[in-house]
Amino acid sequence: MAKQEDVFKKLISHAKEYGFIFPSSEIYDGLSAIYDYGQNGAELKNNIKQYWWKAMVQLNDNIVGIDSAIFMHPTIWKASGHVDAFNDPLIDNKDSKKRFRADVLIEDYCAKLEEKAQKEIEKAAKRFGDAFDKNEFENTNPRVLEYREKQKTILSRMAQSLEKEDLADVKALIEELEIADPDTGSKNWTDVRQFNLMFGTKLGASADTATDLYLRPETAQGIFVNFLNVQKTSRQKLPFGIAQIGKAFRNEIVARQFIFRMREFEQMEMQYFVPPGTELGFYETWKEKRLNWHLALGLGAENYKFHDHEKLAHYANAAADIEFKFPFGFKELEGIHSRTDFDLSAHEKHSGRKLQYFDAERNENYVPYVVETSVGLDRLFLAIFSNSLKDEVLEDGSERTVLSLPPALAPVKAAILPLMKKDGLGEYGEKIFNDLKYDFNMIYEDKDSIGKRYRRQDAIGTPFCITIDHDSLTDNTVTLRDRDTMKQERVAVADLRRIIDEKTNFRNLLSKI
């Protein structure tokens, strides 16, 4: 645990030192669970958005994108169920005075059971070597079966209790499992209670006439209320999807783990509208598609797994999370939900407007069903950043810190590094920089030794460093250094655009999906 905490602290420190993420309002001591993205963080974040948008909208002729407003009519949140049911079960520790989500405490307990099961599997793999059959061991080893059966029983009981709003039993389960405050070890808990997560605000020129509004807690409802507008103007036939990237706001009482859980965050969501009765087939299809999209990033298949929901939301008939192995364990990265016709039907009822589709093949009007994919942009940023940050010991015994980002996502694609500013090397480097900047985000840097500059570019994840020396002035060649291999080769200046594009183009990611 201490090692994990050290890794996480280094990650946060690196993110700040190299211009990825800063505490918001830091000179005023900041705000809890609010962060600003720095110059490199903003570039990485925008590149992640591009990857999602290109894969979701550009590559699918039946998916279109919108950008709906953050402020929405307050009745929307009544119709969606957020006013009445958008709650988290919270519990306080009487000794430490700290507040926790009761369901997360239980889920973390179950995660430790899974860690124990994995240790049994790892020990057996070392013991049996090449003869080890992982599937057979998992299905027959008594300890592994015991750990996983216990997990299943606990999560099932919690889901049923939350479904029935039996918060007393949720507390009883925490006490039976002897779950303690992770920081102090105290087991002195209050009762569990529900807390609504929406931020309230007002719209209007005066307090007397102002309308009570909410900052949207999700982007999905902006898609649902625009369903007919988009369908008619795009002339799409079912099945088709509407995608959106946008800010959402939740008054998370227990916000922690850096940018994993924040009060202001971004979502990348797609709602796929399908004929009734076909939704579960499309649900399985989108589970596979979304996992393939993540795997194309090259972060390691072993770092992903599906988690099927025991407790379904009020709108769903099937739901699963794609979980990622963060420095603090497997946690939700993306949700795939079969939302039935709940949303459109609820908005029909509350607005008095029909939100139906005429299906020419079926010769009938109906309210479409919906399959949703929703990934947290900030969580995805953290997954990519944490997986890419590495310390390496080199052949000469020295060390380097490298951010081995997928090249297409790297904030800077190439750095122009003249050995010195004088003797015309600076001017030649600036000429190359000014030529390539139309196609790539570039950096020009002529301060410090070339070794220090290489290390700085490694730390922000720049795929290529281009070094200009005196020979460059006569033969129009430069030294091209690869971030991952650190190999250097002499290449013609005329070939730089092609070489950089071949490695950093989004096609490299999109073609793997």
Task: Map the helices and strands.
Elements: H1 2-17, E1 21-23, E2 35-37, H2 39-58, E3 63-65, H3 74-79, H4 82-85, E4 87-92, E5 99-101, H5 102-128, H6 134-140, H7 142-163, H8 167-176, E6 193-196, E7 200-203, E8 211-214, H9 220-224, H10 227-234, E9 240-249, E10 264-274, H11 279-295, E11 304-308, E12 318-326, E13 329-340, H12 342-351, E14 357-359, E15 364-366, E16 369-376, H13 377-388, E17 389-393, E18 399-403, E19 414-418, H14 425-436, E20 442-444, H15 450-460, E21 464-468, H16 472-475, E22 477-482, E23 488-492, H17 496-504, H18 507-510
Parallel strand pairs: 3-9, 19-20, 19-21
Antiparallel strand pairs: 1-2, 4-5, 4-6, 7-8, 9-10, 10-16, 11-12, 12-13, 13-16, 14-15, 17-18, 21-22, 22-23
Helix pairs in contact: 2-13, 5-7, 5-8, 7-8
Primary descriptors:
23 strands; 24% strand; alpha+beta; BirA Bifunctional Protein, domain 2
General description of the model:
- The protein is built from 18 helices and 23 strands.
- Helix 2 (39-58) packs across helix 13 (377-388) and helix 7 packs antiparallel against helix 8 (167-176).
- Strand 12 (318-326) and strand 13 (329-340) form a beta hairpin.
- The strands form 7 sheets. It has a 7-stranded mixed beta sheet with strand order 3-9-10-16-13-12-11, sandwiched between helices. A 5-stranded mixed beta sheet has the order 20-19-21-22-23, with helices on both faces.
- With 513 residues, the chain is α+β, with helices and mostly antiparallel strands.
- Helix content is 40%, strand content 24%.
- The chain is globular and about 75 Å long.
CATH architecture of the largest domain: 2-Layer Sandwich
Strand neighbour order, sheet with most strands = 3-9-10-16-13-12-11
How can the largest sheet be summarized?
A: 7 strands, mixed
CATH fold node name of the largest domain:
BirA Bifunctional Protein, domain 2
Q: What is the tally of helical segments?
A: 18
At the first level of CATH, what is the class of the largest domain?
Alpha Beta
User: Got a strand count?
Assistant: 23
State the end-to-end distance: 35 Å
Structure class:
alpha+beta
**Large-scale geometry:** globular
CATH superfamily of the largest domain: Bira Bifunctional Protein, Domain 2
Write down the domain tally: 2
